[in-house]
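Collaborator request, handled under Task 6.
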Amino acid sequence: MLKRLLLWIVPPLGSAIIRGLYLSCRREFHLPKGEIDPSRPYIFVFWHGALLMQFFPYRRLRGDHKVAVIISEHLDGELIVRISKRFGVEAIRGSSRRGGVKALIGALRMVERGYDVAITPDGPRGPRYSVAPGVIALARKSGAPIIPLGYVPSSYWQLKSWDGFIIPKPFSKIDFYIGEPFRIDGLSDGEAELVVRDHLMKVSKRD
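Structure tokens returned to the collaborator:
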């Protein structure tokens, strides 16, 4: 009963709060300098703790391009699925800890259909700033370039969760950083994970 109540209340309320919070803030978008092919699919990566506002830089860069996000099969994942749908984002269920093979197959099918795929390499349970093998496998098998997303609010709340989840404060300024596309061709698993992490850290932390 409680689960059904949460699934009924949280998605519309959550999406409204996210939109309202975004609109209250000053925004600056730092776009990639290289050309982004509008006709090809990309893999978008961002840290789990920076999940809240990633719909907006993605749409700024890709417009109405079709996109699906890999989301865990837990209750919190179902809530994210329903909120994501309100932003025009489809869901691929599974994670590195549960349903990983199913999620990879689903993501590959989406890329074949021309969808962008979004993934949090350290989700759904961390450790924070780690890179699970799923994004490496997806990039190799699909051939799609990877684009990192990150944002830095001038003022924010940070939850005491494993991912250090960030919530920008109303009327703050948010700098959105969209990195250059990159590939991991020819790299070992360990090297590829370090490259993904390095690119993500560059768009996530600013002095």
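The cover message to the collaborator said: "The mean pLDDT is 92. The helical segments are 2-24, 55-62, 75-85, 100-112, 133-142, 189-204. Please let us know whether this matches your experimental observations."
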